[in-house]
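Input structure tokens:
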């Protein structure tokens, strides 16, 4: 897939059961049982190794083996292909070769948001405030609240093929506060290779009525997801999702779930490959669930 002259850079980071015996000039333990990470960047001289190989002008693919998030901003900015594989287990080596040579088409999605190193310096370890705080300088925590732009957001993922994603079914424009709504996304493999992708759906309240006592989160919340079938080029799959009242609820200052009247939006994404775009609907207390 990448060509026979490609160099592969194996970057190791994050947790292990104990300090390994690798050469510390190239590798140093960054995290283990009883050892907390001190930085989000690559440990040891791995960044220096990448810079030297990339400067040689040979095509490069970076394979990142890690458990926790790693800031590889400079590598991302270089434009080289990056594959994040976690810890592969017993057959990890074969899986890595199959992906890097194109024998297998990956379609994974990040289960976490990866932030740059600056986040670790701005968010104090003992400050658990979720929302940004201008007094302390805390940028906020979690992808729904922080003001720091991520290196890669939750759900990011690519494929060797392409997809299109559109809503095939949406609810009415007005629903009741406790009503569960059904959504169906139409996923099409528009590329030239077979592939599967994770489809993740998000919701957010954009405006609320009544007293406005619940402060709205600035970003969306995941309410459902699904892994598609293996789709051949041109194949279509209709993927159903449910949005319950609990999934779109907000939490008030007492820790209670509430479903305020207001305007909501929903959209789904197929990794970083395609998006349905947003569909808005209103929640009104005067509407019954049977309407």
């Amino acid at each position: 897939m990448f060509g026979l002259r490609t160099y592969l850079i194996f970057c190791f980071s994050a947790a292990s059961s104990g300090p390994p015996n690798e050469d510390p000039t190239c590798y140093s333990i960054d995290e283990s049982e009883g050892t907390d990470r001190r930085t989000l960047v690559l440990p040891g001289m791995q960044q220096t190794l990448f810079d030297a190989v990339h400067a040689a002008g040979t095509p490069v693919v970076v394979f990142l083996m890690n458990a926790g998030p790693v800031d590889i901003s400079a590598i991302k900015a270089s434009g080289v292909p990056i594959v994040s594989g976690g810890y592969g287990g017993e057959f990890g080596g074969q899986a890595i070769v199959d992906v890097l040579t194109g024998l297998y088409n990956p379609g994974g999605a990040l289960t976490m948001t990866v932030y740059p190193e600056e986040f670790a310096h701005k968010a104090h370890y003992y400050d658990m405030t979720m929302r940004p705080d201008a007094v302390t300088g805390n940028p906020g925590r979690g992808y729904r609240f922080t003001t720091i732009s991520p290196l890669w957001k939750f759900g990011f993922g690519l494929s060797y093929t392409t997809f299109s994603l559109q809503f095939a079914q949406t609810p009415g424009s007005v629903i009741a506060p406790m009503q569960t709504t059904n959504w169906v996304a139409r996923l099409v493999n528009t590329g030239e290779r077979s592939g599967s992708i994770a489809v993740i759906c998000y919701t957010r309240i954009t405006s609320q009525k009544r007293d406005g006592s619940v402060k709205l989160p600035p970003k969306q919340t995941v309410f459902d997801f699904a892994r598609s079938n293996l789709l051949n080029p041109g194949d279509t799959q209709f993927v159903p999702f449910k949005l319950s009242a609990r999934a779109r609820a907000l939490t008030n200052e007492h820790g209670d779930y509430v479903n305020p009247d207001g305007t909501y939006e929903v959209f789904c994404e197929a990794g970083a490959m395609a998006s349905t775009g947003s569909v808005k609907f209103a929640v009104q207390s005067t509407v019954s669930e049977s309407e």
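Residues 2-7, 12-20 have pLDDT under 50 and may be disordered. The two ends are 53 Å apart (CA to CA).
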